[in-house]
Specification:
The protein is an all-alpha fold. The chain is built from eight helices and no strands. The protein is elongated and about 65 Å long. Keywords: Signal.
């Protein structure tokens, strides 16, 4: 355990030194080679599904778009952001992330603001920014799911696909669906965090600005609904795996 804690501390320090604009990982050997390799090794060691397939453009973009939603909503949550960044790269399991709704409120109120209106405005702006980015992510996810349906139908139907391609294909579908479900979970967590912050701001510093913040959160909830109802194949939830090569089946859906 001490070794693990030390390794994590070293990794977090290195990540902190390589943070780019808005906290995003800056391109380089550490973020483009070392961390992804460590992520695949760690995920495999934990028994998670890992595919060796190269990613499509849409799959790459899906992971890029997911980054915002799996990060803590406030940049002052430094340690939590680093943990989430490593969860995004699969170095750490997603369970390592904080699920404490009060984190955002404490980060929001921890800095110096001119007035309570600034805090309410920041809350409304964060919720609005999330809302505007959910649509593009949902569209991206829809393209990935559609391509995965084609992928699995080809696996089932084509005798030219060798057996060793079947499991990696299914593993990629599991990875894609797992990411979409994770983003849905973290978006709902953001909404919970925003509502916690709004309620406690009203108690501590009542202001008419709370109305705008409330409307922003409601709009985010409305936009998040369709994402969490996206029609997936069901692989991540334990759906059908590819049949043996001599017993092809057609995937439903």
């Amino acid at each position: 355990m001490p070794r693990l804690a030390g390794a994590l501390a070293l990794a977090l320090s290195a990540a902190a030194c390589t943070a780019g604009d808005f906290g995003r990982p800056r391109p380089g050997v550490w973020n483009d080679v070392i961390v992804p390799s460590a992520g695949l090794w760690s995920a495999t060691a934990r028994g998670e599904t890992v595919s060796p397939f190269r990613m499509t453009d849409d799959e790459e973009q899906l992971r890029d778009r997911a980054w915002r939603f799996v990060m803590p909503a406030h940049e002052r949550s430094f340690f939590e952001r680093q943990v989430s960044d490593f969860a995004h790269s699969r170095v750490l399991p997603v369970e390592a992330q904080s699920s404490t709704a009060s984190d955002y409120f404490h980060a929001l109120t921890g800095g110096s603001y001119r007035s309570q209106a600034s805090r309410y405005n920041r809350l409304a702006e964060d919720a609005n920014a999330d809302r505007l980015l959910i649509g593009p992510f949902r569209a991206n996810a829809g393209r990935v799911v559609a391509a995965d349906r084609v992928r699995m139908r080809a696996v089932d139907a084509s005798p030219q696909v060798p057996p060793e391609q079947r499991d990696p294909a299914f593993a990629r579908v599991v990875e894609n669906e797992g990411l979409i479900l994770w983003v849905c979970e973290r978006v709902n967590f953001r909404i919970e965090s925003y509502r916690y912050a709004l309620a406690n701001l009203v108690v501590e510093m009542p202001s008419r600005e709370a109305i705008r913040a409330e409307r922003s959160i409601m709009a985010l909830e409305a936009e998040a609904g369709p994402l969490c109802k996206l029609d997936l194949i069901g692989a991540f939830r334990g759906g059908a795996k590819p049949a043996p090569a001599d017993k092809p089946v057609v995937y439903k859906g």
